[in-house]
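Summary for the steering committee. The consortium agreed at its last meeting that each partner would contribute one worked example illustrating the joint modelling workflow. Our contribution is presented below. We chose a case with several input lines so that the handling of multiple components could be demonstrated. No manual editing was applied between input and output; the record is shown as generated.
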Amino acid sequence: MPKIILLGPPGTGKGTQAGLLCASIKVPHLCTGDMMRKAMADDTPTGRLVKPCMASGALVPDSIIIEVVKEAIRGLPGYVLDGFPRTVFQAEALSAIESIDRVVSIETPPEVIVERLSNRRICSNPACGAVYNLASNPPKIAFTCDKCSDVLKARADDNPEIALRRQQTYLKETAPLIDFYKAKGLLRPVDGTKPMEEVAISVMAAIC
Ligand code: AP5
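What follows is the complete predicted structure of the assembly.
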């Protein structure tokens, strides 16, 4: 089973593509953002520690996230990592314990991302967590999840000020991973501006 990393800026479609890919190749979808949001919702010690970072659009400290990921991937023969690694330090820590098969970089320009994040709505039921987009993937009934009928809401860190901070953090901390994985011969770029189904075909081609 393959070990895949999906790389790209906030809102490029990592979560969307990870969901489609994992359903197709039957490996677990490991999203570090979801793990951190769950820790906050459960009010765990980790959740309390990371809350200010998440709220401000900064990264959670490497030491915390690396331990969480090590625990999550332990013993798994394959997976899709969505949102990890996000710093060169995290990437080096991962390289020390795992052999990654492919890194798919989903490339989308900032103006498209701003629109996607402002239109993203998520199901407020933590057990569901379905993701919609008012422009590209709207729910059948306004403000209502198609899957569980719970209320849809905007993600707290999608407000314009925090979303901009997340983009800046990506450029400074995470974009260097493109060269990091290119140098290892693992990087496969795909065009994230296409409709979701077309991006999914490109992602699948990139991992084969
Ligand atoms: P996280 O939850 O991972 O957020 P992110 O990386 O900022 O990514 P997003 O979830 O915002 O976007 P996405 O690329 O998954 O896009 P999506 O598919 O939803 O992380 C949140 C926070 O956690 C971080 O800021 C940080 O604090 C912390 N954190 C997490 N990991 C960390 C780490 N490793 N180290 C340190 N801190 C960490 O799509 C976006 C929207 O666009 C949706 O509405 C979707 O429907 C729509 N869409 C998707 N694809 C398309 C398409 N092709 N066409 C049209 N619309 C599309």
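The mean pLDDT is 96. The radius of gyration is 16 Å.
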